[in-house]
Write a structure and sequence with these properties.
By secondary structure, the protein is of the alpha+beta class. Strands 6, 7, 8, 9, 11, 12, 13, 14 and 17 form a 9-stranded antiparallel sheet that branches. The N and C termini lie far apart (52 Å).
């Protein structure tokens, strides 16, 4: 079962459950749980439809969100008609779903547990606790593992009486207590039971990769789930989220924490691969990598909201990853810091027939000049907090500035990773300016070598002259998508947000133009013009938050606040955002939860809070 949508304006006030369509639920109906190594998508009907193991970027063992028939899932629901409501337990990433039936009510608590309060313990474990609340509710469950994106043969057997699924060096067990006797049939491990008040059932699924599979005791599982809740609450209690949108900011931060790959400190762009930007279309990409373009927003969010450990780990992961390709930057890196991201097509039909399904991302080989500005901005923010930089990092940052001087005149693929011919994108030029401006400032504070400072300053002036003469519409006096065009691009707002010192009248004119041509209510399209791909896409949520933040910085706080209120209301029932939204229906599109959407929310909320404080002085 899944949830039905209303219009874009009432997406959080819709009926709770309707049957799946073709085996799929709306993307808006997914919540996510995670443990710092991997993450799972859980639908409103209780089905775990995505889980990659052992790590976030590993092949999926449950992938029904991308192939309802062959992808595999872990279903758990009443065996009679029901409606469902859900929430995260306060200040946690532990999900609670309440099923209400004519026969009674049952509550399911889902978590990827933290082992002994330490994220990096080797064992992965999914726990599903079922509590009878009222009446007598018949429950059914089924585990259908499909290792290696469904390409590997799964063997089901029993070990010490416990059902176990294996494929090569991977294994998972299904340990059930008071959840019925598990049976093995038709490639699944299944069971059923009657949920009664005061009775608690538990299904635990430990997983092992190239290591012994541990079969836990129930008491240990119960204690681990309780400790997981406590650990999340302790982490949340130390954060600094405040203000009008405090709840949305805190949920965004908790979501961002699930995207942190604890072994390295990298932050993934999303949990999933290939969820479509247009249902039935080809714009389906693997987002289980860490993008340099997100780095400044990521570090700023960690620093603003009291996450120094995460900020430090992320910065040093970024320095390690970028060292491997120095002096050139890749668009993205693997979560372990590696540069290889070979793109391949998987043998799945795709969400509601949206093919191809991809693993890997060919954008890693593109030239995107904006990344240099993002990385120098990130280093500048980090140095502003620590007051120092490592000597080797300082040297490499100076060499990056030298490279920008040599390459800023080249066309590139831009922030949006278009698959058409490279162009002279305005936002890329703005971020080259930001790179040299931040390098000059760091050199002035003696944090990086200053021997080429004069060259950086001269190139910065040349870039500004290029932008102000070649990247401006003569008719509207606003910044355009690329040199010599009349197309618009919401990404040029990022140049302003990151500190590009352009003409303020042109910033205002750009806000007006974007508002008139790319904005539809609270939704903002990424750009006008072609991009080398077929089909269309939804409204890119980060652009809407960037627009709100730009309004606040342009001295229009009332408009910004009104827009933020609308955008916060567009989250799903548990506060999550995907990459895009269909403005006509409110349907989520693209991968989820999308880190950049949540980062943009945090940035806009903090900027509006600052603007409000300044207005009160």
């Amino acid at each position: 079962m899944g949830a039905v949508h209303g219009s874009a304006g009432d997406v959080r006030r819709r009926p709770a459950t309707v049957p799946r369509t073709g085996g799929y639920v709306p993307l808006r109906d997914y919540a996510v749980i995670g443990d710092g190594r991997s993450a799972a998508l859980v639908a409103r009907d209780g089905s775990v439809d995505w889980l990659a193991l052992p790590d976030l970027d590993s092949p999926a063992v449950f992938g029904a969100v991308l192939d309802a028939d062959r992808g595999g899932r872990f279903s758990l629901e009443p065996a009679v008609p029901y409606r469902s409501e859900r929430r995260y337990l306060p200040d946690t990433n532990v999900l609670e779903t309440t099923f209400v039936t004519a026969r009674g009510t049952v509550r399911v608590t889902d978590a990827l547990t933290l082992q002994d309060e330490v994220v990096l313990a080797p064992m992965r474990e999914l726990q599903r606790r079922v509590d009878g609340v009222a009446g007598a509710v018949p429950m059914r469950w089924s585990v259908r593992p499909r290792f290696g994106y469904g390409t590997r043969t799964t063997r089901l057997a029993r070990r010490a009486g416990v059902p176990v699924a294996t494929a090569g060096a991977d294994a998972l067990a299904v340990c059930a207590w008071e959840a019925g006797e598990p049976g093995i049939e038709d490639g699944a491990i299944s069971g059923g039971f009657l949920a009664l008040p005061g009775r608690r059932a538990l299904i635990a699924m430990p997983f092992a990769h190239q290591e012994p599979l541990v079969l836990p005791a129930r008491a240990d599982c119960d204690a681990r789930l309780d400790r997981t809740c406590a650990a999340w609450r302790r982490w949340a209690a130390a954060r600094l989220a405040t203000g009008r949108w405090q709840r949305a900011v805190m949920r965004s931060l908790l979501t961002l924490k699930m995207l942190v790959f604890a072994p390295s400190g990298a932050v993934a762009a999303a949990v999933t691969t290939s969820l479509p930007e247009q249902v039935g279309g080809e714009r389906n990409w693997d987002y289980r990598f860490s993008w340099v373009r997100d780095s400044a927003f990521t570090l700023a969010a960690f620093l603003r909201l009291g996450c120094p450990a995460e900020a430090h780990a992320y910065f040093w992961w970024l320095m390690h990853a970028s060292q491997l390709t120095h002096p050139r930057l890749q668009v993205l890196y693997r979560l372990d810091g590696g540069p290889r991201a070979r793109e391949e097509t998987l043998p799945w039909e795709g969400y509601r027939g949206s093919w191809p399904v991809r693993a890997g991302n060919a954008a890693a080989g593109q030239i995107q000049l904006d990344t240099y500005g993002e990385l120098l901005q990130t280093a500048w923010l980090y140095a502003g907090t620590t007051g120092t930089l490592d000597a080797d990092v300082s040297r490499r940052l100076a060499e990056l500035a030298d490279l920008v001087c040599a390459t800023w005149r080249e066309p590139d693929s831009g922030l949006w990773e278009v698959r058409s011919e490279p162009r002279h994108f305005t936002q890329s030029k703005m971020m080259c300016w930001v790179a040299l401006d931040r390098a000059a400032d760091l050199a002035g504070r003696r944090l990086i070598p200053a021997r080429n400072l004069a060259r950086w300053q001269a190139a910065r002036r040349e870039i500004a002259a290029y932008i102000e003469t070649r990247c401006v519409s003569p008719r509207r006096d606003c910044y355009v998508r690329s040199a010599g065009s009349e197309e618009l691009d919401a990404a040029v707002l990022l140049g302003h947000l990151h500190g590009y010192d352009g003409e303020m009248r042109r910033v205002g004119a750009t806000l007006t133009a974007v508002g008139q041509e790319l904005r539809h209510g609270p939704f903002v399209d990424r750009y006008s013009g072609e991009d080398g791909l077929k089909g269309s896409e939804g409204a890119f949520l980060a652009c809407s938050f960037w627009f709100a933040e730009s309004l606040a910085r342009a001295g229009r706080p009332a408009e910004a606040t009104e827009l933020m209120d609308e955008l916060v209301a567009l989250a799903n029932d548990v506060g999550l955002y995907s990459e895009e939204i269909d403005p006509a229906t409110g349907d989520f599109l693209g991968n989820l939860p999308q880190g950049l959407s949540h980062l943009a929310l945090i940035s806009a909320a903090c900027a509006l809070g600052t603007a409000s404080e300044e207005a009160d002085r």
